[in-house]
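As described in the Methods, two query proteins were run sequentially through the folding procedure within a single session, without resetting any intermediate state between them. The first query and its resulting structure tokens are shown here.
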Amino acid sequence: MLICTFLPPSSPDPKDESCLTHLFQSFDDPNKNLRNWSIPTFSNPCSDFNSNLAGATCNNGRVYKLSLQNLGLRGTISPYISNCTNLQSLDLSNNSLAGPIPVELQYLVNLAVLNLSSNHLSAAIPPSLAMCNYLNVIDLHENDLTGTIPPQLGSLARLSVFDVSNNKLSGPIPASLGNRTGSLPRLNASSFSGNKNLYGYPLGPMNSKGLSVVVIVGIGLGSGLLSLVLSFTVVCIWLRSVEQKRADEQEAKIPPLMPDY
């Protein structure tokens, strides 16, 4: 009891404060949905299990969940999000956030849910997300992501939801994600659809749309060349026939020679 008496009360984590401060500064909040996100609150975002911030959930004085979906937020995602080291769920879906997915998310080692869907995020999917071993959900659909799907993400043994549909991804779907075996949850085609240059199981083979253009051009060039050859051949045959006809006519005009006696 004496020991408990002298234990200090739970205090705010300075890393949470840095995380929240920089995150708010990277956002543009035109609808003022984050009214109580202010510097004084960032220094004390949690009171044990109670949150002092809209959209934040606390556990034992630490922020462990951020639910900021559908708030009309603009701007980017600050790399300082990695300072919220106790974060287990990050949902920024249905906003207008742009820029890349921070590679610093790899430091959120407790992260289980990552939902960044329906934004304007661009660039490639960071392979370093595979460092978040507890990830159950990666939802990135409806963005402007480019590049290939990192095969490293197939190593996430707990991953049950993976959605990258309706982006600008290209290349093959890694077998470690598209054709999962054993006890790993299988992903269907809808998780990858809407990416024009993405191919492989569970989608179809290499997108033939681009190849069809090459084929069409090749057929067009081949047809043109064939037509040119045929036309040249016909003209040559016609010219030869005309020359032969003239030769025959000239030969017919020459009088026959008188025989010698």
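Immediately afterward, the second query was submitted; its sequence and tokens are:
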Amino acid sequence: MSSSSSTSSSYVVVKQENEAASQAVPVVNMAPIPAYKRRRNEKPGKGLRHFAMRVCEKVRSKMLTTYNEVADELVAEYPEGSNAEQYDQKNVRRRVYDALNVLMAMNIISKEKKEIKWIGLPVTSYQESTTLTREREELMARLNEKQAFLHELIVQQVTFKQLVEKNKKYEQIHGRPSSASVLSLPFIAIKADPGTVIDCSISQDKKEYLFGFSNSYEIVEDMDLLKSMNLSLGLNAGTSTADQLEQAKTCVPKKLHEFLSRIAVESSALDVVEEQPKKKFKSS
């Protein structure tokens, strides 16, 4: 076998001889592609994909825009004289138009007349499932919080109504008490050990009170004190009897009757858990 090459052609001629005949087989030259051809064929990072990403960023940041607004901003990003053949205004605007069509086909944006609106990037089923799970957990947490708040309001309503009935019965037997012995709502009670010295300063408008304690103390809210007097009919402790539940129903609207049994059951379940000790404050 013998081979010869020609300097005037771009391929190598290989001559092969056998018993039947001989023929020439052209082989493509594997020499590197000239630099001027690479520059003409390659457009690294500045093609339709690049413009689609830039257009996507623009529309996402604005949420609502137009074709002319996006195109004008992208044209302004490429100064004159920098690769004018590739970045001339007509070419940029054409690529923006093509990029918008691609984004609309992918349902990332929508177009109504001249307005372009951002919809959102496509997500996988796993991402969508994770998002829905997180939203469900947030909604359930809010629902539980609102239910707990409703239950507390119902218990307060029952407690206040029972307090009113208790005061009415007292007045029927003993008459109306003196104003000096009446304690108005709301109020707080301060519990301290015997021998504790309490220093109280009151502002001139009697709106601010400053207390000083020589020992630790405990603040008791009015509702906690009324509950301890069993005016809540055992709803807060889960000890309500059938008669107490019927009595509690007279204190709330009929639409809330179904919640009373739930409150009694839930309070009973919570009562199984050991009650946390009340917070005591140290004197400053």
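The chain is about 45% helix and 15% strand. We note this only descriptively and draw no conclusion about the first query from it.
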